[in-house]
Write a structure and sequence with these properties.
- This protein folds into two domains: 3-68 and 370-425, Urease, subunit C, domain 1, CATH 2.30.40; 70-361, Alpha-Beta Barrel (TIM Barrel), CATH 3.20.20.140.
- The protein has 15 helices and 16 strands.
- It has helices at residues 17-20, 46-52, 90-103, 108-124, 138-150, 174-188, 208-220, 234-243, 250-255, 274-283, 291-296, 327-340, 347-361, 388-394, 400-410, and strands spanning 3-13, 25-36, 39-45, 57-68, 70-76, 127-133, 154-158, 160-161, 194-200, 225-230, 264-268, 286-289, 312-315, 379-382, 416-421, 424-425.
- Strands 5, 6, 7, 8, 9, 10, 11, 12 and 13 form a nine-stranded parallel β-sheet that branches.
- Strand 2 (25-36) and strand 3 (39-45) form a beta hairpin.
- Bound molecules: guanine and zinc ion.
- Zinc ion is lined by residues 74, 76, 229, 267, 318, 321.
């Protein structure tokens, strides 16, 4: 039996720092993780675990900080090549950049090339799990899952369904959305580390008939997640109201068609009305905060006060509306948006959001997102002195939080010293 012992600083959580504060965190400056069969088989002090497992292969990361691999709870892998496209707000940005690019995914070779590029980029940034939208084309889902599986990754993805307000070639129908999604779900859901997510893009690009068809599919597969977008920009909300005049609010356009539930994952959710917050809380839905996207597309300031209680909140890049593949950059943006709302997120909260918070939002927290016995050995090792600017600030640190915060605020892929996927270094 091959055992690997990773040595380094270890930071782990045994509770949610949003409710328990920093007492939820445990830092061992000379810690160790024993990896066996792709899982965490023991955690503890480096000297103690070394003595207990003399036959284990040792990888010493020195002062590197070992954390759970980052979990990006909302991304669009097909937008990889159009990230950082200038000057548009949501609807114009979709029409000018996103839809023309997504058209290209009818070509399986193109889809495969971008999926490979995307997973190479996310792994280089220490991200070991993503929940991605694909395009209207079933081939784009096959490409995403094939490339994730090739790398041994846990991944969640779904065909993005649209049957109106999108160009010819990017529209299906209510029946095709149901049939294609069902076939893809049956093909991929539960294969290795892959999960299918039912994915209506958002209410403006689906007819009521299509929303209802996907609601029916979800009712047949309630263990699946359902992901969509909610209340990202004010213009979008006005448009939704005109498209669904009978709806009480944006969330109601989903609820009326069977698309509100405890396994629902709603991206952005910035401009919510009190009734929407109450309903999301009642059903125990998940929201995903996408801070680099919200500033890049000019959407608004997410209310992190929604975290805790019955609403689970995950963190995400929203590639390519988001301006980075890095969950470190994403944490920095979350901090800045928190500051603009008068709420300074603690480094413990930021790291937790990008790991266990996202895992809980995606209901995969019994497998990933935490350093604990039996969890998958999906890990990232951070170099807390990866650039001269970061190193000189970290050198002044008195606590682990002060040592870590400069990397959260100024770090990028250069701070990723190592990434492990199911115990294998990538
Ligand atoms: N709303 C509907 N589609 C999208 C998308 O691709 N990106 C973002 N940021 N918002 C959306
Ligand atoms: Zn999105």
């Amino acid at each position: 039996m091959v055992e690997t012992l990773l040595l380094g600083q270890v930071l782990r959580f045994d509770a949610d720092p949003f409710t328990q504060g920093t007492d939820a965190a445990h830092h061992d400056p000379r810690g160790a993780l024993l990896l066996r069969d792709g899982r965490i088989a023991a955690t503890g002090n480096a000297d103690v675990l070394r003595a207990a497992h003399p036959g284990a292969r040792v990888i010493d990361h020195g002062d590197g900080l070992i954390l759970p691999g980052f979990i990006d709870a909302h991304a669009h892998y097909p937008q990889t090549a159009i990230i950082a496209s200038w000057g548009k707000r949501l609807i114009d940005w979709l029409n000018s950049y996103t839809f023309p690019e997504e058209m290209r995914f009818s070509d399986p070779a193109y889809a495969a090339a971008i999926a490979a590029r995307y997973f190479d980029l996310t792994l280089a940034n220490g991200t070991t799990t993503v929940a991605s939208y694909c395009t209207i084309h079933p081939e784009s889902v096959d490409a995403c899952f094939t490339e994730a599986r090739r790398r041994g990754l846990r991944a969640l993805a779904g065909k993005t369904c649209m049957d109106r307000n999108a160009p010819e070639g990017l529209r299906d129908s209510a029946q095709a959305a149901y049939d294609d999604s069902k076939a893809l779900l049956e093909k991929w859901h539960g294969v290795d580390r892959l999960s299918y997510i039912i994915t209506p893009r958002f209410s403006p690009t689906s007819t009521p008939g299509q929303l209802a068809a996907l609601g029916a599919l979800w009712a047949e597969h309630p263990d699946c997640l359902m992901q969509t977008h909610l209340s990202e920009q004010t213009d979008e909300i006005t448009w939704v109201k005109s498209l669904f005049p009978q709806a009480r609010d944006y969330l109601d356009t989903y609820e009326a068609h069977g698309l509100l539930g405890a396994n629902g994952v709603y991206g952005h959710a910035i401009h919510l009305e009190p009734r929407e917050i109450d309903r999301l809380q009642e059903v125990g839905a998940a929201l995903v905060h996408c801070p680099t996207s919200n500033s890049f597309i000019g959407s608004g300031l997410f209310d992190m006060g929604l975290a805790g209680g019955n609403i689970r909140v995950g963190l995400a890049t929203d590639t390519g509306g988001g301006s980075s593949f890095s969950m470190l950059r994403t944490m920095a943006a979350a901090y800045e948006i928190g500051q603009l709302r008068g709420h300074a997120l603690h480094p413990a909260e930021l790291i937790w959001l990008a790991t266990e918070g996202s895992a809980r939002a995606l209901r995969i927290d019994s497998h990933v997102g935490r350093i604990a016995l039996g969890m998958d050995a999906d890990l990232v090792v951070l170099d807390l002195s990866s650039t001269p600017a970061i190193a000189q600030r970290a050198a002044r640190a008195d606590t682990i939080w002060e040592a870590l915060f400069p990397t959260i605020m100024m770090g990028d892929d250069r701070a990723i010293a190592a990434t492990y996927v199911a115990g294998t270094r990538r």
